[in-house]
Amino acid sequence: MSSAAKAFTRADPDERRQSLIEATARVLARDGAAGVSVRAICAEAGVSPGLLRHYFSGVSEAMAESYRWTGQQIAEALDRAVAAAAPDPRARLLAYVTASFRPPIASSELLASYVGFWSLTHSDARVAAVRAEVYGDFRAGLERLLLDWRPDIADPARAAIALTALIDGLWLELSLGDAPFTAAEAEALAERWMESLAR
């Protein structure tokens, strides 16, 4: 086999699709929603512009799948944090809550991607559906851990909603940089709120 033939290898179709998903997230983080186009995504992925249409119906679907993938990365980081925690229910819940205040979740790049996704939720039904899915999964995981810790909580769904709002606010400030508090202080605030549920 010639060296030229050896150098040429076709990427696995799943790998090509995934590279386009990840390129979409990078373009969104760098250029915002207005800067995302077939040409920009394919240039970032290092492929010809026609390839995106081979894997997605268009930019909207690529954005939605990029959002889903980003949500999966966050879910995996949360799962790792819970797995590394002490086995008691309170420690597992606290690990889930506070993982958002540290990398890889607390990051300016992730925030930039999320701002782009959020900006599309009112104009793109696919992206809005994925947002509902991602946040629904997060709250469901939080609700399960809350019930493991405090099976007597009167309204675990509302507690999960309130705790999610607190987490999101603290995460946003930390990810923007120059927050008026540290990650450790954010963790302490979240822990204090959690403890208020036990009263």
Overall description:
Residues 37-56 bind DNA. Keywords: DNA-binding, Repressor, Transcription, Transcription regulation. Residues 14-74 form the HTH tetR-type domain. This is TetR family transcriptional regulator C-terminal domain-containing protein. This protein is mainly alpha-helical. It has a domain at 63-197: Tetracycline Repressor, domain 2. Helix content is 74%, strand content 0%. The radius of gyration is 20 Å and the shape is elongated. The model is unreliable at 1-9 (pLDDT under 50).
Lay out the secondary structure.
Elements: H1 3-7, H2 13-31, H3 38-45, H4 50-55, H5 59-84, H6 89-98, H7 108-120, H8 125-149, H9 156-176, H10 183-197
Helix pairs in contact: 2-3, 2-5, 2-7, 5-6, 5-7, 5-8, 6-8, 8-9, 9-10
Which characteristics define this entry?
mainly alpha; Tetracycline Repressor, domain 2; disordered N terminus; 199 residues; 10 helices; 0% strand
Task: Briefly summarize what is shown.
74% of the residues lie in helices and 0% in strands. The protein is mainly α and 199 residues long. The chain has a domain at 63-197: Tetracycline Repressor, domain 2, CATH 1.10.357.10.
